[in-house]
């Protein structure tokens, strides 16, 4: 993982925008549509949606910290 990883707070995830570094299926730009927390305020579900196709994927939100795979914002 890139040492200069993306800095993100779980509380700021919802509606945040992301760009995938390695584009697959013409899906480059994404938005976080669902973030679910448990009683300890830990993220238990994170859903990311492709802007072009509207496909939704459940991901481990910590993957977004890897700046070799994800860029913050739509780039």
Record the SSE blueprint:
Elements: E1 17-24, E2 27-37, E3 43-50, E4 56-58, E5 70-72
Antiparallel strand pairs: 1-2, 1-5, 2-3, 3-4
Protein name: TIGR02450 family Trp-rich protein
Pfam families: DUF2389
Organism: Colwellia ponticola
Task: Pick out its properties.
75 residues, 5-stranded antiparallel sheet, globular, mainly beta
Task: Please tell me about this protein's structure.
The chain contains no helices and five strands. It is an all-beta fold and 75 residues long. It has one domain. The two termini are 20 Å apart. The mean pLDDT is 94. This is TIGR02450 family Trp-rich protein.
Task: Please sum up the structure shown.
This protein is mainly beta and 75 residues long. The chain is built from no helices and 5 strands.
